[in-house]
């Protein structure tokens, strides 16, 4: 199974065939031959190799119109596990999942990213080992590690680039550090990208175009277009927090510009507004608490933040024409006020063609989006057609 | 060759192998076997079938390290031709191209789209026949037709949907009407999408993320992300003309909203501003003429339009992180004033990570972008892996 990470330049059809099985449905050798155009003898050999590795298991017999019913085969998501790591500004969320990204065990810990890579990654190693043990799996069962970080990440190298809220992490070789401990491939991406991926895979697999917006201490987005995450040229796509809000006050932003979405409508900005009104609000979590306690000023501020977000989202909707806009992040937990404000402005400001089939919803995966996406990113890598081809070769 | 349009459900490797040859480089049978992982005997049979169809031709011998030098084969873009149709608000531009989208003959005609589908499509049929004749090709040589229309198009059916400047075209079966005359598959898309595709293929093939902005009577965009055109859920992606310009005056737009980019910065809007100042300006073309004649008020107005466009483009750049922004459309012909205004605001308003490697340039394909893209769209369809598989099957 170590060879799963050694890529061959030469496709042999095994990976292509295996992708069909990843939906979990059992299939016969004939089904697979018909769907791939590969010879039945080739299919039989590939099935044998994947069964030997435990990635494919017998799944009973198909119904037959006469004669001996043919055997069926299915993907075995228990063959290996993946460690999913979602590092936020203040919290770390870890999970061990199977190869279908189902969470087996998980843990959540207050851990400010600003503690720096030494402290945070040491904790990830220790907590990861403990989680594997509590899932009763060995280190050798670990097929890969997926990590989300709260800042821009160069996807090809997995290194953070000039991350504003985590300066000590700039250009740190996160994949190398974790790989030397976990002995498995490590994939790293921006936290909002993995949340978008998690939300898409877990809740909207049939949707091709999804826009995921995280509203928390900061504001960011992840873009699914034609079924896949789009990261842009430097991995910075979805960085909507510093787009100017049309019509907003010229509030100073930490980026140096004025009137940025994040300066006007983030959880931090809402907390500041409420604090000016004499309320006890220092963080996004305080804002959610105030709204839930029925504090009118808090609901009003969250609704106005929704409108400001809506003004920028209207542009995103015109530009990308998604069919789902999913709102996640802790501020989305403050009930319907945020989404009501968002809907108000998006439906008013966007063209009818872009909104007639548009749904704006609260994230279905909520706090799990990050670990689900980190798992999916790692699984996609270790079970990619190229990886399976190399493994079977 | 008619079978090129009949898709088989069952891949046989011929299409996959053929895609490698589309770059024009000659390859040996062994090259193709190594690159695809298919058996050498399979490759040989596929090459024979594609040679019989004229799509592949012998391309001499490869150099050899000893023994008989192996034969090489190459894609033959002359095997068939494609009709590329770029229909704008006021002009029609037609070209016959080869299968590498090289223009063989072309024609340009003043033809308002508002004349309606009967008049316009009849002209396309007549002009298309004449162009084929002047290229000395038969109707049976025509592999496909690509069409760009100046309004929203449902890509799957090729029908315009509620097109604002061409109401008589709503839900017209453009592909059906042209197919019955040209006896070949017809692909239809929005004009800005095909311009983006044409610019990408002809000038920036190595760039994965390109944003194409057309500034003419209206304003629209086409999005290339991860190497392919992204159309969104209803084909409306890139519809940036009705995004609110941050900080702009509340100018009434024909869409019903105020302060839309198109109402503030399109060629039409610039012409209106200049007409108010007593200048002779009724159209985008008049604006370009005035700028070229050295009229200061016109240069100033175009530069301000550039700044307003820049304010919206900054949001597009933050959101999509392209490496190239190409500005096309007739207003881009007005020299450097437009692009200077755009650059001024984009570099001021976007995050450093998104702009450090960003280039904002004038379209390299200029007036040819539309026909080049229409041709590429048709060629991609008729030479797709599925089409070639079906043809060879």
Radius of gyration of chain A, in Å, reads 23 Å
Q: Helix and strand succession of chain A?
A: HEHHEEEEEHEEEHEHEEEHHHHEHHEHH
The percentage of residues in β strands of chain A lies in: 15-25%
CATH domain fold name of the largest domain in chain A = Nucleotidyltransferase, domain 5
Separation of the first and last Cα atoms of chain A: 12 Å
CATH architecture of the largest domain in chain A: 2-Layer Sandwich
Description:
- The structure is a homodimer of 393-residue chains.
- The first copy, chain A, has 14 helices and 15 strands.
- Chain A folds into 3 domains: 2-78, Orthogonal Bundle (Arc Repressor Mutant, subunit A), CATH 1.10.10; 81-196 and 370-382, 2-Layer Sandwich (Nucleotidyltransferase, domain 5), CATH 3.30.420; 205-363, ATPase, nucleotide binding domain (Nucleotidyltransferase, domain 5, 2-Layer Sandwich), CATH 3.30.420.40.
- A 5-stranded mixed β-sheet of chain A has the order 6-5-4-7-10, sandwiched between helices. A 5-stranded mixed β-sheet of chain A has the order 13-12-11-14-15, with helices on both faces.
- The model of chain A is unreliable at 1-9 (pLDDT under 50).
- The longest helix of chain A is centred in the C-terminal third of the chain and has 25 residues, at 296-320.
- With 393 residues, chain A is an alpha/beta fold.
- The interface between A and B is large, with 60 and 60 residues.
Q: What would the keywords be for this entry?
A:
homodimer, 393 residues, alpha/beta, Arc Repressor Mutant, subunit A, Nucleotidyltransferase, domain 5, 5-stranded mixed beta sheet, 40% helix, 20% strand, globular, disordered N terminus
